[in-house]
Amino acid sequence: MKDHNAVLGVESLSDVQIEAGKNCIVRVYDFPDALIEEIAAGTLMSLDPDGELLEFDEAITGTNLGTGDGAEKDFKGVLGSVMPGTLVITDSTETFTDNGGGVLVSSGDGSGSVDYLTGAWAVSFAAAPAADGAITAAYKPRPCGVLKHTAEEDETEGAVIVFGEVVFGHLSVGGMAPSKAELALLESINIYPVG
Known about the structure:
Layout: E1 7-8, E2 11-12, E3 25-30, E4 44-47, E5 53-55, E6 60-67, E7 74-78, E8 88-90, E9 95-98, E10 103-106, E11 111-114, E12 120-124, E13 134-139, E14 143-147, E15 157-167, H1 180-188, E16 191-194
Parallel strand pairs: 15-16
Antiparallel strand pairs: 1-2, 3-15, 4-5, 4-14, 6-13, 7-12, 8-9, 8-13, 9-10, 10-11, 11-12, 14-15
């Protein structure tokens, strides 16, 4: 019976039980595209700026934040939740790197800040970005929850536990057990690993 996968209702016997309590709240989110490979139940998940599911360890790169005009030095916007210490903003001349404490440290004489929960950011370049020059960002979003069921190849949406108790032994980040810091992030959004 090792490979048995009998379907009973909407769950199969091969599904891993992720919920550890009866008071879990689950939301269904779309993936940006149909999956090309399976994502295991228990995987920590994040949301991209469009509110679509990503695996938590996936970085978002090349996000266009604006375009220089040769005169304006100050730029601001909102990305969605950001993992502390992961945001990098650049105009290809000056680069702002997140110090993990909400400050974007400039490679020049500029200044900047980020709010990790909302993703609101602001930078002031030392010299105005060149006309038609792209201002881009790369970062990792904070976790939004835990995948409740294995998402199979070609699926376009996934059910995510966004509140409640989950089974610690089934949690995964990139195929590995989550770190203490990642577990603390889950608790900060009211998801409590037990067992």
